[in-house]
Amino acid sequence: MTIMSTAATPLITAVIPAYNAEKMLLETLQSVSNQTYDKLEILVVDDGSRDGTFALASDYGLTDRRVRVLRQVNGGVARARNHGIAEARGAYVAPVDADDIWHPEKIERQLQSLRKYPGGRGVAYNWYAAIDENGVIFGHSRPVLHEGNIFEPLLRENFIGNGSTPLMPRAEVLRCGGYDAGLRDSGAEGCEDLKLYLALAESLPFALVPDFLTGYRFTRGNMSSNAYRMLQSHALVMAPLIERYPHLRRDIQTAKFNTTHWYFNKALANRDFAQAKKLAPMLAMQYGPQLIVHGLQQSFRLAKRQGVRIARQILRKPTRSKTRLAGAAVPQAGTRYSDRFLPLCGVLSPTSSRMADNE
């Protein structure tokens, strides 16, 4: 039996790792419950929370019987995700962190995108909007168009960018060993999702849904405060890949530089000067030549943009900001992510039933 079975309506398991998540969990659960594709199993994995996370999830399960709540001793997000995947009954798994949000059409459109592959055997992903604590958009992912064999592009840049986006065949995730909890044990938690995506990309095609279907929440100060640990995690993930793919060494080194530079810029943007002070010597000592080249490239791009702006002013042509990319509405900074799907709120497919057991 292929995974795209049962009249092309396979059971999907959403896995929600949750640690002290009572402030944001309800919104996440609602975004999963409100999927237009309703043949879902929703697993909340309470990772040893000390607040009201377990009670909140259990109460929510009274209104949606597709929800099951699991508990474990605190072991980190990778172990929580692995616990949920091990207990999952679905042919596909779709992790979502307990503070992120899904667009109502996310799962339905991801499944549609996988139908191009025999038996639906592949991984689906989409773009994301960056949101703050209040669900307000302040940015979005770079809208790449990579599909099929995406291993090398993903090696150069983690364009998926978070753990709440992919739809993955459960059997293949298990074959790859799931998420590597050993990174946390080594004090280098952070790139477990990238490591799994790369392992899947070595043997599976990826399908893109060109739309911003994940609301990826950045809590204030979190990005830069974890920068050094994330870089350690990235280095550990990349080390064995350099050994296996020596011809890609330069690409991997470029990826490491870009990752370090990205965190440095974020530290400066967040005024986390202590973190920036830690990262500056690393950039200077390890990536001196790359910094020079990068600086020249940035100067050229800035000069080019200024030249275009001046030319438009001379010709009296208005500067137009893009409102759509590949047919998708571009997330507008300052608006709420939920405003993108207000007309769909509470709307499920005609055959849906939140109280269905979906056995």
Automatic annotation (TrEMBL):
Domain Glycosyltransferase 2-like span(s) in chain numbering: 14-147
Domain of life of the native organism: Bacteria
Coiled coil: none
The keyword Cell membrane belongs to this UniProt entry's keyword annotation: no
Membrane-crossing residue ranges in chain numbering: none
Listed GO MF terms: glycosyltransferase activity
Similarity field: Belongs to the glycosyltransferase 2 family.
Name of the molecule in the record: Probable glycosyltransferase protein
Keywords of the record: Glycosyltransferase, Transferase
